[in-house]
């Protein structure tokens, strides 16, 4: 029972991370209803992503930096869920 709940929470957090990633692809204005959702997603995910970002800075390709922290966190969470 506890294991099932833990796995569900991990999978739910992965969905939150993916929603944040998808919303980051679109310009969202401060007065948009999605802006509040985006702020909530950032508040929920940044405490986990920021430490990974400090260890693994964005990959510089040309003039663009690719943030790999999201990918690393999702993979780690999926591995933890499978181990549980």
Helical amount among residues, as a percent range?
over 70%
Work out the strand percent.
5-15%
Rounded Rg: 15 Å
**How many extended strands?**
2
Side by side, the strands of the main sheet go: 1-2
Major sheet description = 2 strands, antiparallel
Shape: flat
Mean pLDDT: 94
- Structural class call reads mainly alpha
Q: What is the count of helical runs?
A: 3
Oligomer: single chain
Q: CA-to-CA gap between the ends?
A: 12 Å
String of helices and strands: HHEEH
Tell me the count of domains.
1
Q: pLDDT under 50 segments (min length 5)?
A: none
Protein name: YggT family protein
InterPro entries: CCB3/YggT (IPR003425)
Keywords: Membrane, Transmembrane, Transmembrane helix
Explain what the structure shows.
With 84 residues, the protein is mainly alpha-helical. It has helices spanning 2-24, 33-55, 69-83; strands at residues 59-61, 64-66. A hairpin with a 2-residue loop joins β1 (59-61) and β2 (64-66). α1 (2-24) packs across α2 (33-55), α1 runs antiparallel to α3 (69-83) and α2 (33-55) crosses α3 (69-83). The longest helix has 23 residues, at 2-24. It starts with a helix and ends with a helix.
């Amino acid at each position: 029972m506890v294991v099932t709940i833990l796995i569900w929470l991990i999978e739910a957090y992965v969905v939150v991370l993916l929603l944040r990633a998808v919303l980051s692809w679109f310009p969202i204005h401060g007065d948009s209803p999605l802006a509040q959702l985006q702020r909530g997603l950032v508040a929920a995910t940044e405490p986990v992503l920021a430490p990974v970002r400090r260890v693994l800075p964005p990959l510089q390709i040309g003039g663009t930096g690719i943030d790999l922290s999201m990918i690393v966190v999702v993979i780690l969470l999926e591995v933890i869920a499978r181990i549980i």
